[in-house]
Amino acid sequence: MDFGALLDDAFSYTRSGIFGNLNRWAALLLAVICLGIPMNGYVMRIYRGTDTAPDVDRWGTLFIDGLKLVIVGLIYSIPILIVWAFIYGGMFIEMVKGNLVAAGNFEPNLALLLLMYAVEIVIGIIMPVASIRFARMNRFAEAFNFGAIFTTIGKIGWIRYILALIILAIVIGIPIFILVFGFIIVAGAGIYLTGGGNIALLGLVALFILVMLILSPLIGVFQARYMTRLYESAGPEE
């Protein structure tokens, strides 16, 4: 499957299953509002492979599956948190001591910063396949079965897989960037013309958050379907 086919499939899946079904969209919006946990559970259903977007039902199962996926994410974040603690731990110690001058003059170690970014990139590459494998096998151990995870990525092709992730980031990121930039322009113009100051700014920020909240189910379903089809291009699980 080429990248265009991946995108077309994910767009069609999202358009017919969510954009074209207001009741399902509203239910997923509620799932996002509930701390995003049931939304994660819904993503797990998509990861398991469905020809069309599944119904938003059995909320207890959605919460449980969502919590499981959160736990997997937290475990994967531990290496990042450890490196982060090494970088910024000294600054926080100084703040706790009340030595705000020393905390303000803190400069992070460049080598450790680069290490943290490298760890984030590696985890960002591994986690999608780990999450889908976990959803399908329903065993925590499979989320950390690195041999099987690397084998799956190898079957897809490392370069092809990484390019697919970059394309996904661009397709999702560009509209969000345009939206953010547009709100900044509108906010600046509105404040300048009306002199509304902080009240106008807060109103626009609230509007932006509302728009992103409404769009979040579409983004979540789109990326879940895209990654599922990419995962399935490797062939049957081992």
What report would you give on this structure?
This protein has helices spanning 3-19, 22-33, 37-47, 59-97, 100-104, 110-137, 146-156, 158-194, 197-232. It is mostly helical and 238 residues long. The protein is globular and about 60 Å long. The two termini are 20 Å apart.
SSE diagram, text form:
Layout lengths: L2 H17 L2 H12 L3 H11 L11 H39 L2 H5 L5 H28 L8 H11 L1 H37 L2 H36 L6
Helix pairs in contact: 1-9, 2-3, 2-9, 3-4, 3-9, 4-6, 6-7, 8-9
Report the count of strand segments. 0
Q: What series of H and E elements makes up the topology? A: HHHHHHHHH
| Average pLDDT, all residues | 89
Query: What helical percentage do the residues reach?
Result: over 70%
Shape designation: globular
Radius of gyration: 21 Å
Domain module tally: 1
Portion of residues in beta strands equals under 5%
> Helix/strand/pairing class, anyone?
mainly alpha
Which residues form runs of ≥5 with pLDDT under 50?
Answer: none
Distance between the termini: 20 Å
- The total of helices stands at 9
Largest sheet entry: none
